[in-house]
Write a structure and sequence with these properties.
The chain has 218 residues and is α+β, with helices and mostly antiparallel strands. It has one domain. It has helices at 2-16, 18-32, 71-74, 77-84, 92-98, 145-157, 161-177, and strands spanning 37-43, 49-55, 102-104, 130-132. A two-stranded antiparallel sheet has the order 1-2. The protein has a two-stranded parallel ribbon with strand order 3-4. Helix 1 crosses helix 5. Mean pLDDT is 85; it is low at 180-185 and 197-218.
Amino acid sequence: MKRCFDVLISVLALIFLAIPLVILMVLVRLRLGSPIFFRQQRPGLHGQPFPMIKFRTMTNECGDDGGLLPDHIRLTSFGRFLRSSSLDELPELWNVLLGHMSLVGPRPLLMEYLPLYTPEQMRRHEVRPGVTGLAQVSGRNALSWEEKFKLDVWYIDNYSFALDAKILWLTVHRVLARDGINASENTPMPAFCGSVAKGKMSRTLPPKAGKSKIDENF
């Protein structure tokens, strides 16, 4: 049922957003150059890699040594707008349609994090990763890595259609209302270096959803 819901909603969304997506593609090409899309290998179901697609938000400016300049220099005002409005995430609907992702689930992080997870944290890969998730409507970058992973595992153990519907509603509401958006939202989380606590994470009820924006930019 979850997969059928994902396909139905992603198809309808891609049809409804067809013109805005074309406009965004043109704007990204004019403002940031080519390629229009940012693709990166992320771990999906059971940790298997897939190419996650986003609109690019940074230029390809290089320094005198030929290397890319730091992210904060290459991130333009237009790129910050795409991130703060979550418009850069819209191409992930294609990932959902292809079966790489689900509308709701643990966010796909970096491939290099896989060896750093505890066995409990690794459970976040028991389901398809999501465009949005419980952690993203419960605090986003205000949460620690361990708190996010607890929410991911809690979601897996307590999944229901009603829970997915609630997370989607909170996501849409906060994006449209720009609820909780501030300058720090464009600051990425520090890299995950492994959990401090090696014991199993407790499966308690998640904290009340705080003000946040959908998704994270890693």
